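Page 42, continued from yesterday. The earlier attempt failed because a stray header line got pasted into the input along with the sequence. Redoing it now with the clean sequence only.
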Amino acid sequence: MVEIVGVGFMKTGKTYYFDPAGAQFEVGDNVIVETARGLEMGHILIANKMIKEEELVAPLKPVTRKATDEDMRIYRENLSKRDGAMKVCAEKIAKHGLEMKLIDVEYMMDGSKIVFYFSADGRVDFRELAKDLAGHFHNRIELRQIGVRDEAKMLGGIGICGRPLCCSKWLHDFQPVSIKMAKQQNLSLNPTKISGTCGRLMCCLNFEDATYKELRKGMPRDNERVDTPDGLAKVINVDYFNGRINTRGIEIDPDTGEEIFAQEIKSYSKDEIKRRRQKGRKGSRSAEQDADEFSDDADIRELEELMRDF
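This time it went through. Structure tokens are written below.
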């Protein structure tokens, strides 16, 4: 077993483990810790706790110290210099004609460097900009390019659900999200409706994906022909949460051999329907679609192209 404390930082919702080095900390205490970027101020999210050594993914770094009054003064002073640094950097970016969007500025607690966060569509040659900024601030400069999702996480905002963005509040790591998830949840495949403020597919599509996969087991697909207690029918839609399948009965015209659909919609439970696909009938699905309902077919590929341009 290993003793740890959990530390959080302002620009990330993730909790990082550190070695308390024999000291006792309470939730909410401000601490100074050494990270890959230098000395930073964080706050205790998990008080002293024993965990299994297998839960650690890297050697623990010790907490440098509990934040002092002087540390708090430096931290507030760094925050007060942020707006001025943002303005200077924006002017330098315009001067050098660089295609980049300045997101934020962060001063390290030990004064070792200033980190400028920016986003851009591609690679940016910022060497001259870095020299210009170093000459102005007389400090070491780091320009760090971040993606659009990290930009949304850093800036925050309100999602279409009316709540603060998950990424800026509690989401620790970004998980892959695909068009298949939206299609599986019967959502509109309109990029404007399934995209977050970052312009990428909404992270919340991933939250319910496992639930929908479980609910879909043993359920027919829309437009599928199924055997019901009342005979052959076509699936109109499926209510996955209530386990109900809405159908219209099918009769065959004896003269033309065409299918005639009943006007009345009948609802059945999953157990009431024998899922035997009718091969060779009009409107039946192709073998490729039967093999994988959510295969990367043409409409998904087309939508993915739209998402890249959105």
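Notes: Confidence is low (pLDDT under 50) at residues 279-296.
Reminder to self: strip header lines before submitting.
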